[in-house]
Design a protein that fits this description.
The complex is a heterodimer of chains A (77) and B (434).
Chain A (H helix, E strand, L loop, with lengths): L10 H15 L6 H24 L3 E5 L5 E3 L6
Antiparallel strand pairs in A: 1-2
Helix pairs in contact in A: 1-2
Chain B lengths: L37 H15 L3 E12 L5 E6 L4 E6 L1 H4 L11 E11 L4 E11 L4 H16 L17 E6 L4 H13 L4 E6 L7 H15 L4 E6 L13 H9 L4 E5 L7 H5 L2 E2 L3 H8 L3 H82 L3 H6 L4 E3 L17 E6 L2 E6 L12
Helix pairs in contact in B: 4-8, 5-6
Classes of the chains: A mainly alpha (77), B alpha/beta (434).
Chain lengths: 77, 434
């Protein structure tokens, strides 16, 4: 398996941000301009997160004594 | 007696030995009796004991258990009437979960032998087991548990929350074990976006506890994992023992990220389960605990844009409502502030009107009085009858048409007021005589 690039933003951070965005947008005092901006940001997070979820395949590595990791081949059974 | 050395045969040919050669003739009377050295005797007795007694279980109470620097254990085993000396060498003793306590009822499996240096006969223990379910294991477990508890390592408030969606799950277990396969299959099904980093270790046998502890340290120090699963599949209590040892407990407690312990089956509870941030009944359950179910996440995500849209609509409606409310509030404020002023103003206006009226009335009444008195003298009375007096703006009477040539402004005094008029010149027919 090729060493994949580190994802720019982990899924969890995106989901957490989405929660924040929704909470802010659903609060009473959000200015319309901010709500619009948050809406756009939220939609982009949803798209990215969906892409990550849809494309992923479990990546298994082994931690070596050197502290580096190496792809680990585990049987498909 | 296979390794029989005829030189050391204390008793000659035992009559019981069917294969023995015929009894030799008695020594000549003058010969001196054969003398054995102590070593020879002890070695011979030892041989007898070791060769004629099969390994056996001996039950009794432990007394005077001591452990030497080298790890050998010396103790006595006794009942009401008798005692036997026992030794357990380091290699076997290292398998013991804990040293038995004084007076503890145990059974010892071992070989009878003779310690030649002292001539003491003793039982060389291969295994020591306490009576009752899991005996020594239970004792060791309870001892370590109370020690860790006293240090606060088992406290509920030490338990850390697991990350909701770890980018990387660390696993400490054997590369070849069923536990790893179970964990990977659950992770692949529920959260295939996850990165898994394994640190493979021995999970049972000599040195397993130290290896597991070192693996936890290494994985923790590497900083790659957001959460770590440590464990193994089911097995006998001895097989799971590494997870009841202090080094593993301490490594879990010191781990910089949350640790989920999953050892054996549901019913097996180990020290590492107690120290871990979460105890999972099985390795599969541990995997389920560390990642969310991807299908639920996906479903939530798919609903999110609609929710964002509703939130946006809501926000804009709230803004509009807020503006409306503000306008209404402003109106009310103005009303409230201006109300009294307006009232005052009305009152003032009414008074003003009254005052003005009364002034006018009074003046008018006075004028009428004066007017009445002047009436008789005044040309005004004549005017009232329809006559008009024309004057220049300065007040001089106009008597002839030439007094007001075309373009001249003059006044016409009527009974009730004065008109301002402009002359356009005389009427021709009025001036036939020129």
């Amino acid at each position: 398996m090729v060493e994949r690039e580190k994802q720019e933003l982990p899924l969890e951070a995106r989901l957490r941000r989405l929660d924040e965005i929704l909470a802010r947008m659903e609060s009473d005092d959000v200015p319309l301009e901010e709500a619009l901006r948050l809406f756009e940001e939220g939609v982009s997070h949803v798209r990215e997160a969906e892409r990550v979820l849809a494309a992923a395949e479990l990546r298994v590595e082994e931690l070596l004594a050197s502290g580096r990791t190496r792809a680990l081949d585990v049987g498909n059974d | 007696m296979t390794e029989h050395d005829p030189e050391l045969d204390l008793f000659g040919s035992a009559p019981s030995d069917p294969d023995a050669p015929p009894v030799p003739p008695p020594p000549p009377a003058e010969a001196r009796p054969k003398v054995w050295s102590v070593s020879q005797v002890n070695r011979a007795v030892r041989g007898l004991l070791e060769e004629s007694v099969e390994p056996l279980w001996v039950g009794g109470e432990v007394t005077g258990w001591t452990r030497s620097r080298a790890g050998h254990c010396y103790f006595g085993l006794k009942d009401e009437r008798a005692q036997i000396r026992c030794v357990m060498f380091g290699r076997e003793a290292s398998q013991l979960p804990v040293d038995p306590e004084e007076g503890m009822k145990v059974r010892v499996f071992g070989d009878l032998t003779l310690y030649e240096a002292k001539g003491d006969y003793q039982l060389v223990a291969r295994r020591v087991e306490a009576e009752g379910a899991d005996g020594l294991w239970r004792l060791a477990f309870e001892k370590l548990r109370s020690k860790l508890e006293a240090e606060g390592l088992l406290a509920a408030d030490r338990k850390r929350r697991l990350p909701r969606m770890p980018a990387c799950v660390g696993v400490v277990t054997s590369k070849d074990g069923a536990a790893l396969r179970d964990i990977l299959s659950v992770l692949a099904r529920r959260a295939p976006w996850t990165r898994v980093v394994l640190r493979s270790t021995k999970v049972q046998g000599e040195g397993a506890a130290l290896e597991i502890a070192a693996a936890l340290d290494a994985l923790g120090a590497s900083g790659v994992a957001d959460v770590i699963i440590v464990g193994r599949g089911g097995g006998a209590v001895e097989d799971l023992w590494a997870f009841n040892e202090e080094p593993v407990a301490r490594a879990i407690a010191a781990c910089p990220v949350p640790v989920v312990s999953a050892v054996g089956h549901e019913t097996d509870v180990t020290i590492s389960d107690l120290v871990a941030d979460l105890r999972a009944p099985t390795p599969s359950a541990a995997a389920e605990a560390v990642v969310p179910d991807g299908s639920i996440v996906l479903e939530t995500l798919r609903r999110t844009p609609a929710r964002l849209g509703r939130a946006l609509t809501g926000a804009s409606e709230r803004r509009r409502a807020a503006v409306d409310a503000r306008v209404r509030r402003l109106e009310r404020t103005v009303e409230r502030r201006l109300g009294p002023a307006r009232q005052a103003l009305d009152a003032f206006a009414a008074r003003l009107e009254r005052t003005a009226m009364s002034g006018v009335e009074r003046r008018r009444a006075r004028l009428q009085t004066i007017g009445g008195r002047l009436d008789a003298l005044s040309p005004l009375a004549t005017l009232a009858r329809g006559y008009t007096v024309a004057t220049s703006p300065e007040g001089g009477l106009l008597r002839r048409v030439t007094d007001a040539p075309a373009g001249t402004r003059f006044h016409l005094r009527l009974a009730d007021g004065t008109l301002v008029a402009d002359s356009v010149g005389p009427l021709d027919s009025d001036n036939p005589h020129g």
